[in-house]
Amino acid sequence: MTEQIQNTQPQHEQGIKQVNDEDGQQYLTFIMANEEYGVDILSVQEIRGWESTTVIPNSPSHVKGVINLRGTIVPIIDLRQRFGIETLDYGATTVVIVVKVAFENEHKVIGIVVDAVSDVFSVNHDDVRDAPDFGKETDLTFIKGLTNVGEKMVILLDINKLLGSEVLPEAEQLSNLINTLDAPQQAVNA
Q: Each residue of 136-146: pLDDT tens digit?
């Protein structure tokens, strides 16, 4: 179940506004713990069904492992765990949203595990409200803002601030590590 994301205008539906690109931007929304979140659709490369990963030793618990995506080693991060939300078993609606993240002077491809994909919305910049201030102890810099879409409140995420600072090995290091992990298994199978 792989779905390529195209930068297309959404159809006119209830609660969805068609906005000029100068006035707003499109967000892919997804569900986690009955809350709806959105990421800039231009950062989304594709949506995939959940598949098992190659686990990387000594990685943080929210890093589920890596997958090989057409020759690119992609780290997979469970956003529920990253946000400190109670974890659930992965089910039929669990998906991995593959995003391109700006990291220093380069881009990295990272997959984020979410409960389900919801929709694509166009959001006018004027309709985005700042996240509430919970004091210096709570870092919300990764939240672009909040917006209402129909009766729903959607939390808009800045994927670069959320994942751009992740300490993840370089793709070459991951490839070498995976080859090292696979070598004993290949020797056993020989």
A: 777 778 889 89
